[in-house]
Amino acid sequence: MSEPLTGMAGGEVPKLDIQDLQVSYVDRKGQSVHAVDGLSLTVANKPGHGELAVLLGPSGCGKSTVFRAVAGLLQPDSGSILIDGQPVQGTGRDRGMVFQSYTSFAWLTVRENVEYGLKLQGVPAAERKARSLAMLAQVGLKDFAEALPKQLSGGMKQRVAIARTLINQPKLVLMDEPFGALDPQTRFGMQSLILDVLAKQDNTVLFVTHDISEAVYLADVIFVLAHRPTKVLHRVEVPRFEQRDPTVKQSATFKQVENHLLDLLHSLEVKGNVRVSL
Ligand SMILES: Nc1ncnc2c1ncn2[C@@H]1O[C@H](COP(=O)(O)OP(=O)(O)OP(=O)(O)O)[C@@H](O)[C@H]1O
């Protein structure tokens, strides 16, 4: 199931193209520490059905560092990051981010939070309202449009964060352990919701997790990262499951992909740090 690391036909411009990325941090002693060393990966541009690419690896391997570099939140030492062939230079509206911690404006209603980006872009109020209500309906929160964030559960707050990101129609959605703080049942519900919403939105997603089951359930393609300093070790294509509901996790194909990933991670001797939630 492991594939060549690009998975691209010649001549196509990928949605995301990372080549020979190097990132280092300065530690407390003032020493330079390599977090990412020569990482390359590409995520294909698939109009009509956005690709969901997962970065999977043990805690501390550098997933968030790659994520932040793609988001433009940190400056790599060297290497290139292209989105639709254009180099990333700092943060930009072409990328939308969802993090594990919920960030919303406490004094704004759910709808006003979702509309906020459109307001900054000068979109007229009536259009903002219509678009935010449609987006909230997609994430199952239409009835909570006028509620304040403090009235919502953790899963609902994360749905607001997803709606607020997707309404801006980013070319690339970046999600860093977005469901990591949720209980298992809510987490599974959110995984199914994100697949439903993305199927309608045509977004390409880069999704960071250390949960193998979550990776297999969500991904079209999984990049398995090695220990720090990280580089991609394997690219694993995940078969399209006909249905994505709780039963799919019990299917032979699902188990086969999980076992394949476990074997890969075993071979890297990192399984102990990776969550396996079967
Ligand atoms: N600001 C920083 N200063 C120094 N070292 C850092 C900094 N941020 C990250 N690192 C180090 O870089 C390495 C990669 O960290 P990163 O957060 O990218 O890993 P991760 O795979 O996302 O981990 P986790 O799954 O635990 O979030 C780690 O060894 C970490 O200690």
Give the helices and strands, then pairings.
Layout: E1 2-3, E2 16-26, E3 32-43, E4 52-56, H1 63-71, E5 78-83, E6 86-87, E7 95-99, H2 110-120, H3 125-138, H4 154-166, E8 172-176, H5 184-201, E9 204-209, H6 212-218, E10 221-225, E11 232-237, H7 252-267
Parallel strand pairs: 4-9, 4-10, 7-8, 8-9
Antiparallel strand pairs: 1-11, 2-3, 2-5, 5-6, 10-11
The site of adenosine-5'-triphosphate has 14 residues, from β3 and α1.
Any overview of this molecule?
The protein is α/β, with parallel strands linked by helices and 278 residues long. It has 7 helices and 11 strands. A 7-stranded mixed beta sheet has the order 1-11-10-4-9-8-7, with helices on both faces. Strands 3-2-5-6 form a 4-stranded antiparallel beta sheet, covered by helices on one side. A hairpin with a 2-residue loop joins strand 5 (78-83) and strand 6. The chain starts with a strand and ends in an 11-residue tail after the last helix. Mean pLDDT is 86; it is low at 270-278. Bound molecules: adenosine-5'-triphosphate. Adenosine-5'-triphosphate binds at residues 25, 27, 33, 35, 57, 59-65, 210, 228.
Average pLDDT score: 86
- Any low-confidence stretches, pLDDT <50, length ≥5? 270-278
Please trace the helix and strand order, writing H or E for each element: EEEEHEEEHHHEHEHEEH
Q: Going across the major beta sheet, what is the strand order?
A: 1-11-10-4-9-8-7
Q: Work out the radius of gyration.
A: 19 Å
End-to-end Cα distance, whole Å, is 20 Å
Structural class: alpha/beta
| Largest β sheet strand count, sense and barrel closure | 7 strands, mixed
Q: What small molecules accompany the polymer chains?
A: adenosine-5'-triphosphate
How much beta, percentage-wise? Answer: 15-25%
Q: Which percent bin holds the helix content? A: 25-40%
The count of β-strands is: 11
What is the 3D shape?
globular
Number of helices: 7
Keywords: ATP-binding, Nucleotide-binding, Transport
InterPro entries: AAA+_ATPase (IPR003593), ABC_transporter-like_ATP-bd (IPR003439), ABC_transporter-like_CS (IPR017871), ABC_transporter_ATP-bind (IPR050166), P-loop_NTPase (IPR027417)
Protein name: ABC transporter ATP-binding protein
Domain ABC transporter: 16-252
